């Protein structure tokens, strides 16, 4: 089986920075509570003219430019989001139009909450393998600030907005493995509104935390088993950034090297489907990613859902 090689990335952060201090003036919370319980110091919120689609288009355009490819080279466009401003057209169709991607190729959105980018990358791998074509554009984008109740301290401190984009090549000699799963019977533990609804995101934080610390190491181990690799073969593990303590639990339970686990939650909060591609973009931009490196991306989220994927750079 061919694997996915990450060729180029793009990113977009909205214009408003919201610090813990800003939130302290809004709800009964403190910088100390938020940083010690979550590791979050600030997050970005969309301004009036920004939404998940505008961020996706900016990130996608940057990734395509950095890849050096033409729009016509992109065989599919898959977007992971739970906060599309419209149910239809999908954000993927809006990206297709904005970037002038060819019309005879698939473009669609995937909603698997915070696991969305893994699901989207897996879908792109499947499409390239079955429909043909060499390059896929995969995006994770969110405007969660539009979906939280600003008076609910249990959720409003956690979430942020942003987008990350990746151009993948279906590569001959790249190792590949993927694991995906869902447990709809526990949907109540983390839920959100429909795009057109006004009900805010709700969550049983403690239950999601317990689920996450079990699911993350399990997903990573499944990816390693399926690719017949060990942790020492990986250069990076890029986890969904929901809570710094969840990543620390994962490191501990696998007896792993903490420096292999990229963290940027302090600056972004939980950006759901956008968190992994934003992390990949930051890593590429700061030269942490080097050609030939092997990465595992691991996510969990509402649904409940989870997933892991092995990639090369
Ligand atoms: N500021 C101050 N106090 C707070 C705040 C806040 N922002 N939020 C909650 N508290 C209080 C609670 O009311 C509680 O008070 P009590 O003991 O008097 O009842 C106390 O702090 C402890 O609350 P817990 O919920 O037990 O705190 P915990 O240590 O579990 O941290 C958190 C909460 C950060 C939400 C954690 O459980 C977590 O990260 N869970 C995972 C969330 C997640 O990953 N979500 C992603 C999926 S969601 C989706 O996909 C839509």
Automatic annotation (TrEMBL):
EC supergroup of this enzyme: transferase
Domain called Beta-ketoacyl-[acyl-carrier-protein] synthase III C-terminal: residue spans: 224-312
Gene designation per UniProt: fabH
Pathway: Lipid metabolism; fatty acid biosynthesis
Domain of life the protein comes from: Bacteria
Function summary: Catalyzes the condensation reaction of fatty acid synthesis by the addition to an acyl acceptor of two carbons from malonyl-ACP. Catalyzes the first condensation reaction which initiates fatty acid synthesis and may therefore play a role in governing the total rate of fatty acid production. Possesses both acetoacetyl-ACP synthase and acetyl transacylase activities. Its substrate specificity determines the biosynthesis of branched-chain and/or straight-chain of fatty acids.
Keyword entries, A-Z: Acyltransferase, Cytoplasm, Fatty acid biosynthesis, Fatty acid metabolism, Lipid biosynthesis, Lipid metabolism, Multifunctional enzyme, Transferase
Catalytic residues as annotated in Swiss-Prot or TrEMBL: 114, 240, 270
Free-text note regarding domains: The last Arg residue of the ACP-binding site is essential for the weak association between ACP/AcpP and FabH.
Protein name: Beta-ketoacyl-[acyl-carrier-protein] synthase III
Stretches the record annotates as ACP-binding: 241-245
Pfam families recorded: ACP_syn_III (PF08545), ACP_syn_III_C (PF08541)
GO CC terms in record: cytoplasm
Domain Beta-ketoacyl-[acyl-carrier-protein] synthase III N-terminal: 108-173
Subcellular compartments: Cytoplasm
EC number: 2.3.1.180
Family (UniProt): Belongs to the thiolase-like superfamily. FabH family.
One GO term (biological process): secondary metabolite biosynthetic process
HAMAP family assigned to the protein according to its UniProt record, in alphabetical order: FabH
Quaternary context: Homodimer.
Keyword Cytoplasm recorded: yes
Reactions accelerated catalytically: malonyl-[ACP] + acetyl-CoA + H(+) = 3-oxobutanoyl-[ACP] + CO2 + CoA
Primary localization class, coarse: cytoplasm
GO molecular function annotation: 3-oxoacyl-[acyl-carrier-protein] synthase activity; beta-ketoacyl-acyl-carrier-protein synthase III activity
Organism field: Gemmiger formicilis
């Amino acid at each position: 089986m061919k694997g996915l090689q990450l060729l180029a990335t793009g990113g977009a952060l909205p214009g408003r920075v919201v610090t813990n201090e800003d939130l302290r003036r809004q709800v009964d919370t403190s910088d100390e509570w938020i940083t010690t319980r979550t590791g979050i110091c600030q997050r970005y919120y969309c301004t009036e003219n920004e939404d998940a689609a505008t961020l996706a288009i900016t990130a996608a355009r940057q990734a395509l430019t950095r890849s050096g490819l033409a729009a016509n080279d992109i065989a599919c466009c898959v977007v992971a989001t739970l906060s599309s401003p419209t149910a239809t057209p999908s954000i993927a169709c809006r990206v297709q139009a904005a970037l002038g991607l060819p019309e005879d190729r698939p473009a669609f959105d995937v909603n698997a909450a915070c696991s969305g980018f893994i699901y989207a990358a897996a879908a792109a791998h499947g499409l390239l393998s079955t429909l043909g074509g060499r390059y896929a554009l995969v995006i994770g984008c969110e405007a969660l600030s539009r979906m939280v109740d600003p008076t609910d301290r249990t959720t409003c401190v956690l979430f942020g907005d942003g987008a990350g984009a990746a151009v993948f090549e279906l590569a001959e000699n790249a190792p590949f493995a993927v694991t995906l799963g869902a447990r709809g019977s526990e949907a109540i533990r983390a839920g959100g509104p429909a795009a057109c609804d006004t009900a805010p995101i709700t969550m049983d934080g403690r239950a999601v935390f317990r689920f996450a610390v079990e699911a993350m190491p399990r997903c990573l181990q499944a990816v390693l088993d399926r690719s017949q690799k060990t942790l020492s073969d990986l250069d990076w593990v890029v986890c969904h950034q929901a809570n710094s303590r969840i990543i620390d639990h994962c490191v501990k339970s696998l007896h792993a090297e903490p420096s292999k686990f990229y963290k940027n939650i302090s600056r972004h909060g939980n950006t759901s489907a956008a968190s992994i591609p934003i992390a990949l973009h930051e890593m590429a931009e700061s030269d942490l990613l080097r050609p030939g490196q092997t990465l595992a991306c691991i996510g969990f989220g509402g649904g409940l859902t989870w997933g892991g994927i092995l990639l090369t750079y």
